[in-house]
Amino acid sequence: MNLYKNLSVVYHKMYQSLFDYDKEFDFYSTVLHNFSVKSVLEYGCGTGNLASRFLTSGFEYLGIDLNREMLDIAKKNLPNDNFVLGNLKTFQSDQKFDCALITGRTISYLINNEEVLESFKSIAKNVKNNGVLIFDAIDASSMFEDFDEEKKEITVGNYVRIGTSAPNLKTGWTWDWSSEYFEKKENELKSLGKDHAVVRAFIKDEIKLFLAMSGFELLEVIDKETYMWKSHYYVARKKQS
Predict the structure, then answer these.
(1) Phi-psi category of 215—alpha, beta or left, where left has phi over 0 and alpha has psi -120 to 50?
(2) Who contacts 195 (Cβ-Cβ below 8 Å, separation ≥6)?
(3) Residues 6 or more apart from 207 whose CB is under 8 A from it?
(4) CATH entry, 2-139+202-238, from 1.10.3720.10, 3.40.50.150, 3.40.50.2300, 3.40.710.10
(5) What confidence tens digit (pLDDT) does each residue in 145-162 have?
(6) Phi and psi angles of residue 168, each rounded to the nearest 5 degrees, phi first
(7) 90-112 residue pLDDT tens
(8) pLDDT tens digit sequence for 22-70
(9) Which residue in 14, 71, 80, 94 has a CA-CA distance of 20 to 30 Å to 152?
């Protein structure tokens, strides 16, 4: 995705306002303290917006991201040894963590069932027995009951994103998400680049089944406030092996 590569600086500047990272961290922190979590492995850590909060709060932390450009920004502001290039499906750590997080709806980019299972099974190897897995996912029921194909424009400071969605059900509850990013200069919009992705939403029972097949037990589903696309938090625990 171009957004996480050539447009990584634009992402970092725009999405700090689109996502309420303080509120999101407060949610994670509350759950983690309930489970006495001390060590956290974050998949899809991006430019380190949540990482800075975990480190400041005293958690042992490691962030994983697929895109070097995103990690380059994170490493400018935070210690380099807290970030590793890797992906959901294959990353393996020498350490087992109390908790794994998949943040920023990163699971949306696992568009077929094989990828979801492969990722969850890989994550399970990095989590201690009875450890916790928390992630957020877009709700397929609300998304596809009344699918909206209209253009959506969002402005953050001098940056503008214009995005469109179109159903694409070839691999599941998926759709095509295309967007173009602009910068306002002297009342004119200068194009900074385009981005395209196939994005997936999930039904709750799908998630429960994927987790069960990967050695996790679903504990709770919690509504998540979001600027776009209704989502849920999922809280699961790794079963004793």
Answers:
(1) left
(2) 1, 2, 3, 7, 178, 179, 180, 181
(3) 137, 218, 221, 234
(4) 3.40.50.150
(5) 989 888 999 999 999 999
(6) -150, 90
(7) 999 999 999 999 999 999 999 99
(8) 999 999 999 999 999 999 999 999 999 999 999 999 999 999 999 999 9
(9) 71
* 187-211 pLDDT per residue, tens: 899 999 999 999 999 999 999 999 9
Task: Please count the other Cβ atoms lying within 10 Å of the Cβ belonging to residue 219.
Answer: 15
DSSP string, the chain: -GGGTTTHHHHHHHHHHHS-HHHHHHHHHHHHHHTT--EEEEES-TTSHHHHHHHHTT-EEEEEES-HHHHHHHHHHS-GGGEEE--TTT---SSPEEEEEE-TTGGGG--SHHHHHHHHHHHHTTEEEEEEEEEEEEBHHHHHHT---S-EEEEETTEEEEEEEEE--SSSSEEEEEEEEEEEETTEEEEEEEEEEEEE-B-HHHHHHHHHHTTEEEEEEEEE--SSS-EEEEEEEEPP-
CATH topology for 142-199 is Nuclear Transport Factor 2; Chain: A, (3.10.450)
Q: How far apart are CA 28 and CA 33, in angstroms?
A: 9
Amino acid at 126: N
How many angstroms separate the CA atoms of 57 and 47, rounded?
Answer: 18
Quick check: pTM over 0.85?
yes
Please report which confidence band the pLDDT of residue 186 belongs to, taking 50, 70 and 90 as the band edges.
Answer: confident
State the CB neighbour count (10 A cutoff) for residue 208: 17
